[in-house]
Amino acid sequence: MLSRTLAIALATFHETVRDRLFYLVGFFGVALVGASMVLSPLTVGAQSKIVADVGLGSMALLGLLVVLLVGSNLVRKEMDRHTITTVLTKPVGRTDYLIGKYLGLALTLTVMIALMGLIYFGAVSMTTMKPGLAHLGAIYLTLLELLILTSAAVAFSFLVGNALSAVLTAALFVIGHLLRSLRDFAAMTEGLSQDVIMVAYRILPDLEVFNVRSEVVHGDAVGAGLIGMATFYGIGWVIVFLVVARALFDRKEL
Description:
Helix content is 80%, strand content 0%.
């Protein structure tokens, strides 16, 4: 089982990295270096903070773009072309196939974020802010968030078409970062709207757990406790979405 899963993961990685990865990494590098040059006339402290904020924010958004373009289409494309039937007629189970596909895209995202991280460290090093463990922690948490969104995109792709799957994943990204604000708003309201918001707060992932850009920009520490908690939280949500995806996969007649 493991060898079959790894084979599918590597094939998926080669497929996704061929066309998209290095273009996005190159765009990220050019944008970040360009931002550093444009911001150079600013005061020393402001320049370093903006470069760090822009770098981490761009990393998350470009990663999200890969999830929307690739994750939402990861399985659906082969289902629509009926090539998945050929794969599953071989000694490959649906679980092997699903996990392999997910791990392949997860590997793509990991390599992409790692390359962007190197560029980010280089750009920040050109300012007075010296990148350290807090910056590394922020990059790691960004990757965790993207892995959750990838698993959600795969689950959505079994319910709806490619475009709507991407829309639902993008909506999850936005709502996931607004959940705490929505919770605070619900505390000031009554009735059905409060109930709906609180249900959403309890059943959707709180993606602000992975957002530590403010701490990094202001030079605060990102503690090991936060990293550990976010890791377990992220893994838990990945498992939940993949279990849902596997259940939906079972309902598909191929």
